[in-house]
């Protein structure tokens, strides 16, 4: 059951049990919601972008450890980043998870160097039914970015 | 534990192993595995008998028609129907319920009328009524469940007033396993104008059902949940109710005459079977019924009570595990939903799957009930004729492993 | 005669003999025989893969879901759909047509609106529209057929006025074999508000179909008429049309959320697939599509033209035999209806059956067309990929015998 | 194909091509209609019963040789009979055809002695799909008798 230990790494359970940036934003922001119809997982986020920079983010939702940890890590990772950097992160994440085709960007010799904590989600790749759990916050983020762009 | 004998060998899929361990299949409430007899009946149908029914003037087609109608007679006998004409073949329980919702409700309900359901219903026994309510202006009202997960009848008298034209209830919950109050509702409805519809998707596979005694006007169930193929279900109706039910699908075979402007319906039950029916699937369901009758539905039920009692017992060993469902196995079936600590149902299912134990996780197509229970998602183990005590042991073992993975101590 | 090679050996049922003579199966317009590949795919599904789809959090269920969705993708590719999401699995062509009649018509038609059909339609493409017309106050109008058994478009301009909201036409008649005027109607409809529905039950199995070029908004067909199992059919729709189609069945799997009072639909195509779908049947249809693609639909069509030409030719040898259908094989498929002297179709079918030749007799679920043709019942021989010239010869031989039995000289 | 010759005996084809008592009745009578949904055969009859005797009968319909010949022979056979005798004929016919269970009433040594021309329909028994063709006029007759009785 080594695969299971890879899947449920300490850090994932930590983000699941103590999600970062949980809450809602006040003031100007965009809001996007995602749901995984096959399992019922829900994720939502409030995103504030100012001068092309993510200046605040808050997440809501409920679901499995993978979707909620993925969302929590994502929120931390995007805060303070410029939109193109967020998009780059998103692309790298999708490559790492095997959602988009292409080589994984992760450097096996320097764990954490490319995607930080998010690299802990690599174990999900061995569980194809769970990949969409990990991806849910990211499709919701893409939605939020599209809204933000449409709003400007 | 069981009077059924060792039936596992009859189910080829249960011989599959996952990473060296035999599959423990605990998702029969979603769909059951199929015995050789059913698989081979379908196979033989396509190899030796395949032809369209009710149409041909040649022997092959007559033989296919006989086999199809014989399956109808088998199903009728299985549920104690007065005649095969009371049995309509549909695509599944969902379609059967929609037949009643549209065929009865759409033509009879109006603004001010009410449909009485319970909060423990499967989406298939809620959404069709919502759709028809929207089209007719009728309103839905619900019976609640009590702390024992049973349908709460304390305000039945109040709810069942003259506005209620349809009462529809599950015979057995696919989430909590609780038996529905069919007898009580039948008695209450008898004094009213309302018809009683029973969603038998979980009841018919798991307990002896005799429609002559059930007190229902309509009964819906699915073949795939009772060892039969996918793509087939049944709507049983009292003859006088079927006679008054409007067909909801038009097409070939359900008419005696069609002109450019009008059509005359065929007799019941063909009236409700527009187009080419699921022929091989009906015949396959007939074989499943034969198999269940050989086991004996009393024995099936006894086995289910025994294995459910054993499972509830063993699950109670596990700390932080909450079962959503009645404790008394006499009042319930073999679908056992639970939560384990803060482990989300999906994570739990993944961990169990890694241990070769197949369970379902989620809302089980019963979101209103889940909300009522205060659960977002549960893990469900459900049992059927081929499950044995060892399956429960494997489940329990894997649940302990899940505690480890999630660091529950 | 054929580029298909010897495929008969692929069809186990065609190896059956009746009283020592191999079966000559000429009723493929009613339902086709199934190749080993399809039968074995279904068999293997139940033995190795059986689980409910879109539900489980375990590998077996994920594998079943993948196989089910892969079948959808195969069907989409087969008809040239832009994406698998354009393909809805139904119980059959009849159900698919009812989905459009109710899901489009019930919610959009009103008194004064019109539905334009043709007199050559199958009951499955008439009765649903009659039912919806009755519920909405809409009216049916019909294009006639001409002396060549083709749909008469001479008064199309007149009939296709702004009141027409739906046009529904068969791609190929199951009685006369005539191809429907899909291209012409598509062009005419393009300038109007109307949607074009094509009943492809006979077209899709027998000719290459590319929905990107067809010009239709919806296309319905059945698996069992194209080497697939019973209990499965397809509704294809343009994405923007499917998005506007209301679901006609409620239940599990077709929702993203359900509360006591309301439900939110799942995305297309799941919105139209309430309840447990015909899983094994969809996967079986995928295998049928694989088989047809291996043959090549151009070759299938070429073979059909060749054998139909041969049949029309040989039938013309027989005195007093009247064929109801176009002579030019480029404009028709392989369903050949005929009458022989004063021998009633049923008597003829019985005599042919005694000679091992299976044909259909009757009104072929197209009573309005039969009335238009002035025939009460016809005998129909219909051909498919496994039929060879010798089948036609056996038919002709048996027809001569029928003349003898009835003392025609 | 001996079975076929048994099925399509000369006399059946004769009744098919020259149905007896075809037409409609004027004056008091009952009317009944039958249809065989699986093949579309239709049969209808007008029946006049006076003082318990079938004093006139006329038939209509269209369909295969078996159903139409059966109707034509039936019409001839019942004319002039008292109602109980008609019912007896009906019962014997159904036994002969194997529709009702029991021994066939036909005397193999004296063909035609029990049911007259109708005995020619025996060949239909070998063709189970066609039995309902032969039976259609008789179920229609049963209907007509019931109507007649209800009317008195
Ligand atoms: C032209 C046509 N349309 C519709 C149908 C209905 O198909 P199904 O009976 O498979 O639903 C048929 C077949 O009977 C047909 O030939
Ligand atoms: C209680 C209940 N009702 C209805 C259904 C619907 O059955 P099906 O999906 O076979 O149509 C199910 C199964 O999912 C069920 O458990």
Description of the structure:
Chain A has one domain (2-150): Sufe protein. Chain: A (Alpha-Beta Complex). In chain A, strands 1-2-3 form a 3-stranded antiparallel sheet, covered by helices on one side. Chain A has helices at 2-7, 10-17, 65-78, 83-96, 128-151; strands at residues 30-35, 42-50, 53-62. Chain A is globular, with a radius of gyration of 15 Å. In chain A, helix 2 (10-17) crosses helix 3 (65-78), helix 3 (65-78) runs parallel beside helix 5 and helix 4 packs antiparallel against helix 5 (128-151). The termini of chain A are far apart. Chain A is α+β, with helices and mostly antiparallel strands and 152 residues long. Chain A contains 5 helices and 3 strands, in the order H-H-E-E-E-H-H-H. The mean pLDDT of chain B is 96. Chain B has 409 residues and is an alpha/beta fold. Chain B folds into 2 domains: 8-30 and 297-405, Aspartate Aminotransferase, domain 1, CATH 3.90.1150.10; 39-294, Aspartate Aminotransferase, domain 2. The longest helix of chain B is centred in the first third of the chain and has 20 residues, at 59-78. Helices cover 38% and strands 17% of the residues of chain B. In chain B, the strands form 5 sheets. Chain B has a 7-stranded mixed sheet, with helices on both faces. A 4-stranded antiparallel sheet of chain B has the order 13-14-17-16, covered by helices on one side. Chain B has a two-stranded antiparallel sheet with strand order 1-2. Classes of the chains: A alpha+beta (152), B alpha/beta (409). At the B-D interface, loops of B face loops of D. The structure holds pyridoxal-5'-phosphate (2 copies).
Contiguous uncertain segments of 5+ residues of chain A: none
Main beta-sheet annotation of chain B? 7 strands, mixed
- Give the distinct bound molecules: pyridoxal-5'-phosphate
The number of helical elements of chain B comes to 14
Q: Report the CATH superfamily of the largest domain in chain B.
A: Type I PLP-dependent aspartate aminotransferase-like (Major domain)
Class based on secondary structure composition and strand pairing of chain B: alpha/beta
Strand order of the largest sheet of chain A: 1-2-3
Q: How helical, in percent, are the residues of chain A?
A: 40-55%
Rg on CA atoms of chain B, Å: 22 Å
Going across the biggest sheet of chain B, name each strand in turn.
4-10-9-8-7-5-6
Distance between the termini of chain A: 49 Å
Which pair of chains forms the biggest interface, and how many residues does each contribute? B-C, 95 and 96 residues
Q: What is the averaged pLDDT score of chain A?
A: 93
Given helix and strand content, the structural type of chain A is: alpha+beta
How would you state the average pLDDT of chain B, rounded?
Answer: 96
Q: How many discrete domains of chain A?
A: 1
Strand segment count of chain A: 3
Spatial shape of chain B: globular
